[in-house]
Amino acid sequence: GNRIEDDQSLEKIKKALIDAVDGGGGEVKKDILDHVEYTVARSRFSFDDFEAYQALAHSVRDRLIERWHDTQIHFKKKDPKRIYFLSLEFLMGRSLSNSVINLGIRDQCADALKELGFEFEVLAEQEGDAALGNGGLARLSACQMDSLATMDYPAWGYGLRYQYGLFRQVILDGYQHEQPDYWLNFGNPWEIERVHVTYPVKFYGTVEDENFNGGSRKVWLPGETVEAVAYDNPIPGHGTRNTITLRLWAAKPSDQIDMESYNTGDYINAVVNRQRAETISSVLYPDDRSYQGKELRLKQQYFFVSASLQDIIRRFKDSHSNFDDFPEKVALQLNDTHPALAIAEVMRVLVDEEHLDWNRAWGIVCKIFSFTTHTVLPEGLEKVPVDLLESLLPRHLQIIYDINFDYIEELKKRIGLDYDRLSRMSIVEDGAVKSIRMANLAIVCSHTVNGVSRVHSELLKTRVFKDFYELWPHKFDYKTNGVTQRRWIVVSNPSLSALISKWLGTEAWIRDVGLLAGLQEQAANVDLHEEWRMVRKVNKMRLAEYIEAMSGIKVSVSAMFDVQIKRIHEYKRQLLNILGIIHRYDCIKNMERSDRTKVVPRVCIIGGKAAPGYEIAKKIIKLCNAVAEKINNDPDVGDLLKLVFIPDYNVSVAELVIPGADLSQHISTAGHEASGTGNMKFLMNGCLLLATEDGSTAEIIEEIGEDNMFLFGAKMHEVPALREKGPTLKVPLQFASVVRMVRDGYFGFRDYFESLCDKVEGGNDFYLLGYDFQSYLEAQAAADKAFVDQEKWTRMSILSTAGSGRFSSDRTIEEYAEKTWGIEPCKCPF
Ligand code: T68
C-alpha cells in the first residue's frame, strides 16, 4: 500500500488531482462512454437506457473504489478499534442515486448524461432493489451503514449475499402470490467479487478427545466443508472521503476435493453433490416473525458468522500477536440473535485453534460482544433445537453447554437455589424439545444489551428479560432507532431537500440533522407555507402517476393521501385501518347528498408483504383488495374515497410513497412495536402521523408535541387488563356493524373472511381492534378537521420535519460508538 504517503504536501497534490477528476461533467461523460464500449460491450453510438445505467453505474463504481481503497489503507495504517456489525439482513435498496449524492457528483453525472441524450432520473429507475432483508431490522442496518461511513467510523458490515432476495409480491385477484427475486440476473455493479478472499466453513462431523500436554483436549473433525467467497459492497459516506465495506459472503463448493466420491466412479453425482454447497446462500428466509428450527437457516447463520470471524481474526493477527489486545481492537455487534453463534465460534477459535485457556478466552469474549434486540414478544425469540445443533455443529453445542454450566454455577451463588428462576434464565431449555435460547446466550455473553426505543427497553427490563435485568442492571440500555436523512430526504425528496437548504441557508443539515430545528422559527411564515405546499403537491402528483400506472386508479391530488406501508402483521393492525375505511365508506353511502360536500376526500394507500406462511396476514391483503374493488368502482362515492393496495412494497416504493403522503398510520397495539422506523421517515418528510403511543412514537411526541399529531388508543399499561376482560370488553356498535358487513359478504368471499372476522370478535380480539375503534375514528376525524385548515396543516407539517432531528441514525450511531462500542472516528484525508 503506497497510495497515500504521510507527507502533507503529497496529500494536497492528491486532493487537487481528485478535484480535477471529480470536477466537470467531461470526465464522467468520457468514463460513461468507455464503460458503454468496454464493460457493457455496446457501441458508443447506440445504447439504451439500461445500458446507459450500467455504464453510469460502473463510472460511479470506479470512483467509489478509489475512495474505498484509500479508506482501507488509512484504516490499516491507523489501526483503530473497529466495529464489526454482524447482520443476517441488509435492505440496501438501490445504490446509484445514493452514491452520486454522497460522492457529491450528482450534478456532473446529470450534465454528462444530458449531453449524451439521457436523463438521470430515468436511468436511476432502471436499477433493481437489493432486497437482502425483510423489514425494519434490515433497513435499519442499511441506514446505520450510511451513518457509520458518513461519520468516519472504522466499521465493517458483514452479512450474506443471498441469490434470491425477499420474494416479489404479485397480486392476482386480490391474493398475494410470491415470486422469486433473482436479483443478480443482470449483474450487480455495486459489488466487487474478491475471488482471493475465501475461507473454508465446516459443518457436521464429530468431536474427539485428543491427548495434549498430559491432559486432553477436544478436536472437531468436521464432515463437510463449504467455501465462503467475499463480495465487497463499498458504502460511501456523505461529505467525506471515507468509504466503508459491507462484506457479504456467498457459498461455493470447496476446493478440498473429496477424492473418495470421485474415485467411486459416480462423477456426475459427485459434481452435483458438490454444487449443493451453494444453496447455503441461495435464499433469504421471508419470515420476520416466528422462528422455525430449520437446518438451512442455522447453516446460513453459522456460515456467515464463521467466515466473518475468520476474516476479522486474520485482520487482527496481521498486526497483533497477543489476543489480550483483541478487545482493544475489536467490537462485535450482534444484530438480533441471528449471529449469536459468533459467541461460541470465538470461544472455539480461541480455545481449540489458538490454544488459549478457557478462562482467558472467556474474559475476551465478555468484553467484545454487544447485542441489540428488535423484538418485544417472547415468541419472536430464537430457540435452536439441541438435536439440530448437535448434528450440525457438535463442538459449538459442547461450548454452549460449558458456558451454561459455569454461568449457572455463578448464578446459584448470586440468587440461590431458586430453580424456577434458574431454569428460566438457563441458556438451555429443557422440555419436549430441548433447545438453546439464543437470546439468553447473547445476554449472558454480551457486555451490553440494547433495546431500540425507550419504551422497548422498559418492556425488556420489566417483562421479556426481567430476570436478567435484576441480575445485571448495568448491561441494559437502549439506543432509539434512527434513519438516514441522506436517503430519506435528500435522495427520495430532492425538492423538499432544496427547499430546506434554501430556508436554512445551508446544506449542513445533511450531515448535522439537528439544524432542521431551525425551521421551527419559520413555521408560520406564509412564503415558506406556499413553497412547502408546492413541493408536497409535486410529490403527490408523482405518487398519483405511479398509482395510476400500477393499478389504473385515478386519484385526485387534492384529496388527503393517507398511507400505511409496512410488513403485514396482526399487531400492526392493517385490519383496523381497513375496518375504518369500511366505516368511512358506509358513512358516505348513508349521508344526505348535501352533507357530502363536507367530507374530506381521501386516498387510502396500503402496502406491505405478508410472510408466505402467515395465513391471516394474507387474508388481510385480500380483504384490502376486495374492499378497494367495491369502493373504487362505486360511482356514488367518486373522489370522496379511494383505496389503493400498492403491490410489492419495497425500499424504492417507500422512497416514492413517503414524500407524497399527507398522513401516515403507525397504529400497532400499544406494547407491540419495538420501535418502528417508518414513522421517522414520514416525519422527516413533513407527513403527519396518526398513531398509537407505541415504540418510538412516545419519543416523537416529546419532540414535536402531541398537538402536532393524531394520537389514539389504549395505552401500554392498560393493555393487559383490557385483554383480561375478553368477551365482556365493551366494543362500539360501529365496530360490530363493519365486521358484520365483511361477515355477510358485502365485499364477497364470505367464507374466506370468516376466520379473519373471528379473530377480532367474541373475546378473541387479542390486538384490541374493537376496543380502540372508537378512539381511532375520533383521531381520523381530527385529521380531517385539520386538513380542511390548510394553514394549520402546513404548520404541523413543517413542525414535523423541524422536530425530526433526533431520529437520524447519525445520532443512534454516535450513541453506539460512544457508549457501547468504544470506537472513534478515523477520517481518511482527502
Ligand atoms: C423490527 N423487527 C421491529 N424483524 O419490528 C421494529 N425478525 O419495531 C423495529 O423498528 C425494527 O425491527 C428495527 O429495530 C424486524 O424487522 C425482522 O425483520 C426479523 C427478521 C427475521 C427474524 C426475525
Task: Please describe the structure with a list of short key phrases separated by commas or semicolons.
nine-stranded mixed sheet; 33 helices; binds ligand T68; Rossmann fold; six-stranded parallel sheet; disordered N terminus; 3 domains; 830 residues; alpha/beta
How many domains? The number is 3
Poorly predicted regions are 1-5
- Measured by DSSP, the beta-strand proportion falls in 15-25%
Biggest beta-sheet profile = 9 strands, mixed
**Strand pairing plus helix content: what structural class?**
alpha/beta
**Strand order of the biggest β-sheet:** 7-10-11-4-1-12-13-17-18
The name of the CATH superfamily of the largest domain reads Glycogen Phosphorylase B
The global form is globular
What are the distinct ligands in this entry?
ligand T68
Cα gyration radius (Å): 28 Å
CATH architecture of the largest domain: 3-Layer(aba) Sandwich
Task: Give a count of the beta strands, DSSP E runs of length 2 or more.
Answer: 24
Query: So what's the CATH class of the largest domain?
Result: Alpha Beta
Average the pLDDT over all residues and give the rounded result. Answer: 95
CATH fold-type name of the largest domain: Rossmann fold
Distance between the termini: 16 Å
